[in-house]
Amino acid sequence: MIDFHSHVLPHLDDGAKDVDMAVKMLEESKRQGVKTVICTPHYYSKKRSPRQFIEKRATIASSLLSHVPEGIELRFGAEVYFTADTVTVFEEMALLSIENTRYVMVELPFTHKYEDRLFQKLEAFMLETDCIPLIAHVDRYPAIYRKPAILTRLAAMGCLFQVNAEAFFVKGIQGLAHAMLKKGMVHAVGSDMHNMEDRAPNMQAFAELLGQMPTEVQEGLRQTQADILENRLIIPKVERIKKLFGKFF
Ligand SMILES: [Fe+2]
Questions:
Q1: Would you list the domain boundaries of the chain?
Q2: Residue 190 phi/psi, 5° resolution?
Q3: For 133-161, what is the mean pLDDT?
Q4: In terms of Cα–Cα distance, which of 203, 207, 181 is closest to 193?
């Protein structure tokens, strides 16, 4: 199993506080059946340049490497905060991609409405960098929860979607997560783990749930996750999720 979204690298963001906590998170992930952890520390363009970020990430990763439990493999990316007003310089942004692929994990704003400017900026980003956004935890944005048709617009642009494991179990959100999974609109799933307390490793429950899904759903997710890591081009399905009386279908 792959955990596609994690904050396990210490001293880089609000994730693991130190190597000790990082190792505990990785040991628990291993216990739950995870074999590959994609490290996606937060990236804020106001804080450092992409080059500074990947240099710091490499230093931290090498300090952690000898402590990584056997059987767990770390891969690297970033969670790039992207609004209409940030990430103004696209140069070097490809450096933040997942394992030097064309796929960059992008975190959208937590506002209740997305203006056209945001979509235009995403399109400009894709055109200028040749990168494809993998939208982080699509289950967490109020704008998408209110209007899931936004997913159709993003998919039509070519964006992919990552969903957090917990979304499949949280009342209110789970309808959206399940509807997306059934329609083949979930391209990656991650824990978004930050610590061992309130945002701890939690991939096991999702793995058990997925195991009960039809083979094509299981295989579809396994394939898109592998395609991302192998840098194969993914053309997302452009489906429509409807919301009626609080239910998603
Ligand atoms: Fe995150």
A1: 2-248
A2: -145, 165
A3: 97
A4: 203
Query: Can you give the pTM of this predicted structure?
Result: 0.97
> 7: CA distance to ligand 1 center in Å?
7
Quick check: 137 pLDDT over 90?
Answer: yes
State the distance from the centre of ligand 1 to the C-alpha of 5, rounded, in angstroms. 6
- The stretch 148-154 carries a mean pLDDT of 97
CA 45 vs CA 48, 53, 82, 120: distances in Å: 6, 9, 9, 18
Q: Are 182 and 156 in contact (CB under 8 A)?
A: no
CA distance 203 to 241: 25
- Treating both helix axes as pointing N-terminal to C-terminal, what angle do 149-157 and 116-129 enclose, rounded to 10 degrees? 20
Name the residue among 181, 152, 154 with its Cα closest to residue 168: 181
β-pair partners for 103: 132
Q: How much is the average pLDDT of 38-51?
A: 95
**Residue 134: its pLDDT value, please?**
98
State the distance from the centre of ligand 1 to the C-alpha of 214, rounded, in angstroms.
Answer: 28
List b or e across 93-130, with b for residues whose CB sees 16 or more CB atoms inside 10 angstroms: bbbbbbeebbbbbbbbbeeeebeeebbebbeebbeebe
Confidence of residue 86 (pLDDT cuts 50, 70, 90): confident
Cα-to-centroid distance, 35 and ligand 1 (Å): 19
Phi, psi of 243 (to 5 degrees): -125, 125
CATH number 3.40.50.970 is the correct assignment for the domain at 2-248: no
